[in-house]
Design a protein that fits this description.
- This protein has nine helices and no strands.
- By secondary structure, it is an all-alpha fold.
- The protein has a domain of 105 residues: Up-down Bundle (Four Helix Bundle (Hemerythrin (Met), subunit A)).
Length: 195
């Protein structure tokens, strides 16, 4: 069907001596006065809307604190803000966010049980993006004697999360559960090393 349409289009291309069919400009009817009124009212609406949005941002109107707390807990709003507008987290904040990630991964069990693969994949990738920077920042809080075991556990965690991502993408149910449990175990070991 697509190639047939291409051939028709190619056959009907106007040549240099043919002009495409357009009405002469003098025969085009002028716009009715009602259309001009609608055009001005539309412009006024856009002007009013942009004024309201500008004023609300200038006044600093924000959503209620409860909404911001929920967004922070889920990690949606904070991801963009921290990625693009904040320089980086301190080692203590990074360790706290690793603990928060461990709790979030435990709460993800229901999504795995209902096989909501798209949401699980989004959540795992979001937390993986966080962990990349957090593992490096949190290493400063680990004593020198335990750094080797911290690095080994962090590498296991990254490997398990990448395997979990791969098996969720396929989706393979048994392997997803297996690497989910391995990821939780690695996170628990990491949190115990940070404590």
């Amino acid at each position: 069907m697509g190639t047939f349409a291409k051939h028709i289009i190619l056959c009907h291309i106007p040549t240099s001596d043919q002009q495409p069919h357009r009405p002469p400009p003098s025969l085009a009817p002028p716009p009715p006065p009602a259309a001009e009124g609608r055009l001005h009212s539309t412009r006024r609406r856009w002007t009013l809307l942009s004024s309201v949005l500008t004023a609300s941002s200038a006044l600093g109107l924000r959503p209620p604190a409860a909404t911001a707390e929920v967004e922070q807990r889920w990690g949606t709003r904070s991801f963009f803000r921290e990625k693009y507008f904040e320089p980086g987290l301190s080692p203590d904040e990074a360790a706290a966010r690793i603990r928060q990630t461990a709790e979030g991964m435990r709460n993800m069990r229901h999504m795995l049980d209902t096989m909501s693969w798209r949401y699980v994949l989004f959540y795992v990738r979001l937390k993986s993006a966080y962990l990349d920077a957090d593992l490096k920042n949190a290493m400063a809080t680990v004593p020198q004697a335990r750094r080797q075991s911290y690095v080994k556990t962090a590498n296991e965690l990254v490997d398990n999360m990448s395997e979990l991502d791969r098996h969720i993408r396929s989706p393979k149910v048994y392997e997803s559960y297996l690497y989910y449990e391995k990821t939780l175990k690695s996170l628990d070991d990491l949190v115990s090393l940070l404590a």
